[in-house]
Structure formats: structure tokens, C-alpha cells
Structure to design on (355 residues):
């Protein structure tokens, strides 16, 4: 019996040692670090953050930061720009309700629909156009149908604007308190209390049962190796060195500014040249177009026998630039793709009325 117990004990000890590998039990200092900071510094001066152990210090700092933030949340009530923004947004809601929906969309636009439709009907009646006797019934029906949809939509939009004008001030009044309650109550008290309870229940036990972590067992989540940590002294020294470097390199700032100014001057000069070149180009292009138009009109006014009959036919049928545009799609199928646009331009010039 004793032999069996000894065998089991040896087996458990072997499994335990295999699980622990070459790690050592935590010493008193490391136990204190784990409980207070949630971290462990090993014999090689490597620091590990233990996910399961929040530590009292980080939890209390988290609580302090959230209470500070809760106090800042309440200061929103004293922010003049914030209340000015609230007033502007409330005003926008009321303007949308009255001016955009009621006055403009329902009244003004609705009246314009009636006026436009009645004007068209009156013109058709005066001209005695085809079906003129149905002009006023058409105007009445079209305007009524328009307003059947316009009025409900406008009233819904107006109601939405009124509701918004109530919700906006209510939100601005509640938001700082809601934020403060969340940061101070939920985060500062609730989450902090949970962290303290968990740390008290779990961390002391883990400090007794667990072993010193190693880089090979740091998975980056449960056990995270902290390669470096910025202390206040580190930040002060870096800032001080940055100030020294700024002072020692001031000479290059003026050179950099001069280079920037030279670039802007050169770009301005090039822009002026570009504008002048464009002006000269458009002047020359206008001269070329005028000369081309003169030649086209001359060819139309003094046609040769090759196309005299075509010109006479087209003039008799009162062709114009507008009429050329109306058959542009048909011409596109008749003319070569590379010459289509040029042909349209020349044909419009040919039938352009002479001033």
C-alpha cells in the first residue's frame, strides 16, 4: 500500500515538474508585484504582464482616471460653444419644420404647381391647341394629385422637425450626466469593484501555485512580455533632447522657408506663362475658326455644280444649326467616326444665320 502511494506521488511530482519546466516558484517580491501591479519581473529583469491578474494599482488608477473624466463630463454644462451649437441645431429643426416643409414645400411650391399648370392650360386655350377644351380639367387634376402627395409628406417632415427641436435640447441636457454616470458609476465604481474582487480572489492563489514566466511561454495575451516601458523620466529626457535638437537646427528652418518661397514664385511665374499661352492659343483658334466659317459660308453662297442641287434643296427646306443637332445620331451612322464631329461643326456653320 505504501509502495502504491509512493508511486502515485512520484508520478504526480513528475507531471508537475514537467508542466513547470525549468521555471522557478515566485519569490516574495514577485508575489507582491503580481498582487499589487499584475506584473512579474523575472531574474533576468524581464517584465511580464499577467492578463488574469489585474493588480490593485492598475485597477485603482483606472478608477481614478474615470472619476476625473466624470468630473470633466460635468464641465460640459458650462461650455458656451456647446450651448450655442444646441441653439443652432434646435433652430435648424424649427426652420426645417416651418420654412422648409410648411412654408416652402407645401405653400410656395404647392402654389407654384397650381400657377404653372393653370398658365399652361390658359395658353393652350388661347391658342386653341389640339384638345384645348381639356386643358383646365388636366390642370385641375394634375395639381390636385400633386398636392395629395405634397401635403402629407410636408406635414410628416414638419412634425419630424418639431420632434427634433424637442429631442436636441433634451439630449444636450442629458448627455453630460449620462457620460458622468457611465464613467464614474459603471467604469469608476462597477468595473473597479469587479476588478478588486477578482484580484483579491484569484491573484493571491495564483501567486502561490504558478511559477516564474519565461519568454518562450509568453503568448502575448495571457502572459505578455513587456519589452520596454516608458517612464516619466524617459519621456522627460526625450522631450529635453528634442528641444536641444530644435535649437541646434534652427538655421535650416529659414533655408526651408526660402526654398518654399522660391518654389511658389516659380510656380506663379509658370502659371502666368500658362495663362498667357492659353490666351494666345484661344485667340489664334478663334481666328482659324472664323476663317473656316467664312470659307464654309462662301462655299454655300457660291456652290459649284457638284453640290449646288444639294445646297438648294437644304435651303429650300429651311435647315438650321438646331436642325443639324436634331439628326446628329443619324449622321453619326452615316459619317466616318474620325470625321463625324468636324462634319457637324461645318454643317452648323454652313446654316448659321448671317448677322
Amino acid at each position: 500500500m505504501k509502495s502504491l502511494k509512493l508511486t502515485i506521488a512520484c508520478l504526480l511530482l513528475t507531471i508537475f515538474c514537467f508542466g513547470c519546466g525549468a521555471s522557478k516558484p515566485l519569490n516574495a517580491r514577485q508575489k507582491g508585484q503580481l498582487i499589487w501591479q499584475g506584473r512579474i519581473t523575472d531574474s533576468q529583469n524581464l517584465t511580464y504582464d499577467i492578463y488574469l491578474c489585474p493588480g490593485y494599482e492598475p485597477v485603482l488608477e483606472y478608477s481614478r482616471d474615470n472619476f476625473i473624466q466624470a468630473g470633466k463630463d460635468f464641465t460640459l454644462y458650462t461650455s458656451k460653444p456647446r450651448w450655442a451649437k444646441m441653439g443652432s441645431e434646435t433652430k435648424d429643426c424649427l426652420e426645417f419644420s416651418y420654412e422648409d416643409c410648411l412654408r416652402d414645400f407645401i405653400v410656395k411650391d404647392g402654389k407654384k404647381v397650381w400657377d404653372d399648370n393653370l398658365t399652361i392650360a390658359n395658353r393652350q386655350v388661347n391658342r386653341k391647341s389640339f384638345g384645348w377644351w381639356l386643358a383646365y380639367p388636366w390642370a385641375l387634376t394634375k395639381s390636385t394629385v400633386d398636392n395629395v402627395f405634397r401635403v402629407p409628406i410636408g406635414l410628416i417632415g414638419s412634425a419630424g422637425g418639431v420632434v427634433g427641436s424637442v429631442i436636441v435640447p433634451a439630449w444636450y441636457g442629458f448627455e453630460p450626466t449620462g457620460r458622468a454616470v457611465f464613467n464614474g458609476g459603471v467604469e469608476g465604481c462597477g468595473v473597479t469593484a469587479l476588478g478588486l474582487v477578482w484580484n483579491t480572489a484569484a491573484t493571491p492563489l495564483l501567486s502561490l501555485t504558478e511559477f516564474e514566466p519565461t519568454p518562450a511561454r509568453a503568448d502575448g495575451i495571457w502572459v505578455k512580455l513587456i519589452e520596454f516601458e516608458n517612464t516619466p523620466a524617459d519621456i522627460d529626457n526625450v522631450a529635453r533632447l528634442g528641444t536641444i535638437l530644435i535649437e541646434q537646427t534652427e538655421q535650416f528652418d529659414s533655408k526651408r522657408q526660402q526654398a518654399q518661397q522660391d518654389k511658389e514664385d516659380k510656380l506663379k511665374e509658370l502659371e502666368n506663362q500658362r495663362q498667357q499661352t492659353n490666351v494666345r492659343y484661344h485667340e489664334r483658334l478663334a481666328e482659324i475658326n472664323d476663317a473656316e466659317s467664312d470659307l464654309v459660308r462662301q462655299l454655300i453662297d457660291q456652290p459649284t455644280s457638284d453640290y449646288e442641287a444639294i445646297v438648294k434643296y437644304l435651303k429650300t427646306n429651311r435647315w438650321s444649326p438646331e436642325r443639324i443637332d436634331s439628326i446628329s445620331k443619324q449622321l453619326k451612322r452615316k459619317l466616318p467616326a474620325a470625321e463625324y464631329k468636324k462634319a457637324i461643326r461645318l454643317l452648323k456653320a454652313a446654316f448659321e444665320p448671317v448677322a
The chain is about 75% helix and 5% strand. Confidence is low (pLDDT under 50) at residues 1-22.
